[in-house]
């Protein structure tokens, strides 16, 4: 039970609330007064714990009887609730750790000469497009077929970085009018593109699958050369 208490505490569930839940599991339905007397919790405070447990889905109120009785949610259902909550928390942290991994691999180049990282979501892809532009040494190539990636921030980066490097931008005919950029930035359009990318010192390649933009980011020179070759092939046919 100590281990259970430690685990639940990590979800913000206190010892008193653990005691209430276990009492309801072991003894069945009980009223607030019965729980207060059994666990020596002041009656004026018992409802604070009950309301929190009910909000978390660990207990329910039974029927319309007065006084109300409380019932424990089946333990396996509680387990599934906790697993689901843990999964959701970890999912929110993944973009942060993706970013840390990219920073780590780029900083420890001596230990990890090349890296390949999976990227998910338009926001992360946008961040890396800007990073590829900012870190390019002499030239950069962008293929942007998705409107979600077109933003004021992107244009500001293109305009600023084009003062020091050559930038070519490939987009679709439908989106061409949105690219109001200085003449020094070459912009061409094709009827449509399956996916896009950003190529500089590193390379980002992305597609849209099931409504989500995702792709790969790498500093592998061979991958960058393949991406550049494909870019130029499409560029020659663009207007």
- How many helices? The count is 8
CATH fold-level label of the largest domain:
Endonuclease, Chain A
Task: Characterize the largest beta sheet: strand count, sense, and whether it forms a barrel.
Answer: 7 strands, mixed
Shape: elongated
Radius of gyration of CA atoms, rounded to a whole number: 28 Å
Give the averaged pLDDT, no decimals. 86
Provide the succession of SSEs. HHEHHEEHEHEHEEEEEH
Please state the second-level CATH architecture of the largest domain. Answer: 2-Layer Sandwich
Number of domains: 2
The spatial strand order of the largest sheet comes to 4-10-9-8-5-6-7
Q: Would you state the CATH class of the largest domain?
A: Alpha Beta
Query: Can you give the helix content as a percent range?
Result: 40-55%
CATH superfamily of the largest domain: Endonuclease Chain A
Please identify the structural class as seen in this structure: alpha+beta
Parts with pLDDT < 50 across at least 5 consecutive residues: none
Strand content: 15-25%
Terminal CA distance reads 70 Å
Work out the number of β strands.
Answer: 10
Q: Helices and strands in order, then pairings?
A:
Layout: H1 2-9, H2 15-27, E1 30-31, H3 32-39, H4 43-55, E2 59-62, E3 69-72, H5 75-107, E4 116-120, H6 122-135, E5 139-144, H7 152-161, E6 166-172, E7 186-190, E8 195-199, E9 203-209, E10 212-218, H8 221-237
Parallel strand pairs: 5-6, 6-7
Antiparallel strand pairs: 1-3, 2-3, 4-10, 5-8, 8-9, 9-10
Helix pairs in contact: 2-4, 3-4, 6-7
Protein name: Transcriptional regulator
GO molecular function: DNA-binding transcription factor activity
Pfam families: TrmB
């Amino acid at each position: 039970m100590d281990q259970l208490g430690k685990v639940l505490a990590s979800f913000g569930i206190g010892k008193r609330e653990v005691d209430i839940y276990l009492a309801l599991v072991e003894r069945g339905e009980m009223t607030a007064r019965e729980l207060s007397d059994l666990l020596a919790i002041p009656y004026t405070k018992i409802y604070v714990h009950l309301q929190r447990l009910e909000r978390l889905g660990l207990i329910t109120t039974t029927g319309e009887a007065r006084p109300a009785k409380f019932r424990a949610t089946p333990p396996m259902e509680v387990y599934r609730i906790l697993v689901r909550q843990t999964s959701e928390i970890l999912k929110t942290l993944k973009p942060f750790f993706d970013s840390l991994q990219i920073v780590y691999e780029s900083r420890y180049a001596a230990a990890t000469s090349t890296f390949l990282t999976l990227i998910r979501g338009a926001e992360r892809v946008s961040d890396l497009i800007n990073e590829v532009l900012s870190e390019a040494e002499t030239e950069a190539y962008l293929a942007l077929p998705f409107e979600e990636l077109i933003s004021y921030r992107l244009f500001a980066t293109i305009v600023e970085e084009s003062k020091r490097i050559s930038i070519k931008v490939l987009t679709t005919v439908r989106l061409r009018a949105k690219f109001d950029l200085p003449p020094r930035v070459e912009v061409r359009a094709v009827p449509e593109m399956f996916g896009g990318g950003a190529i500089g010192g590193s390379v980002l390649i992305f597609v849209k699958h099931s409504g989500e933009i995702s792709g790969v980011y790498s500093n592998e020179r061979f991958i960058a050369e393949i991406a550049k070759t494909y870019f130029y092939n499409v560029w020659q046919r663009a207007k």
